[in-house]
Amino acid sequence: MEKFDKIIKDKLQSYPTEEKPNDNAVSNMMDMLDQALPLDSKTRILNPLADNKKPIHIVYKIAASLTLIVISLYALIAFNEVTVEVGKMAFEKVELPDRSIVHMNADSRIAYNKFLWNFSRKVTFEGEGFFEIQKGEKFEIYSTLGTTQILGTSFNIYSRPGKYEVECLSGKVAVTSNATQKKVELLPGDGVVLNQSDLQSYSLSTPTSPTWLKGEFYFEEENVEDVISELERQFDLEISFPEELKNQKYTGYFDNKDLDKALKLVCEPLGLQYVRNGNSLEFTFTK
């Protein structure tokens, strides 16, 4: 109040008049002003507890609202998660929300979120699949060893333990190594394989749809271990084999129509014989 009185006094003293009011006149005027002003306009009684409760109450309300929003958003995302798993001896055709098609080979898995799809076309994929992607915003496929980005195209992805390979049949594909972040762009007829964290490009001899879509599997200087793994997937088998086979290569073919024929086509060139017990097979070298 003393500060307020000083401001009034200074203001009165500053008015341009022919005769300045004397100190007594100013003092009398201030007394009259004090009497005229209501008490609550001159003095404010603070209640610290009341003032503190209000903002804390508001903070609690805001926190509760934010928590509800986060929980609702999490539930919305969680309930829209879609996973498709294809077992052994099976093929599956999966249609994505934008009508893109994925043909999935045996023992493969794809996952995506229907809600988040409206903002970004992203899937996670392991196994082998032939993708036919609708044109639109960037499409991203995440696998353990690499990432593939496309706009609108058809291509094949092979993503198995220790091996990642992409072959482009139409459009344009960008493939990135997750380990080194090295990036390679593929045009129709181009392929790339991840070899010890390094992407190595190559040209396709016949840039057509992959033969596995017809149940046919061709190998050229392929690791025998990978060939055996394909046999296991296509015929739901568990195959044991000599350790020395891991260092050998196989060039040949089999299809998934006839197990006995497939085993003959794989075993004979490698000098192998096998003993079968249900779904379990043991490969040994021919004596």
TrEMBL record:
Record-annotated FecR protein domain positions: 83-173
Transmembrane segments: 58-79
Protein name: FecR family protein
PANTHER family, alphabetized: PERIPLASMIC SIGNAL SENSOR AND SIGMA FACTOR ACTIVATOR FECR-RELATED, PROTEIN FECR
Residue span, Protein FecR C-terminal domain: 216-280
Keywords: Membrane, Transmembrane, Transmembrane helix
UniProt GO MF annotations: sigma factor antagonist activity
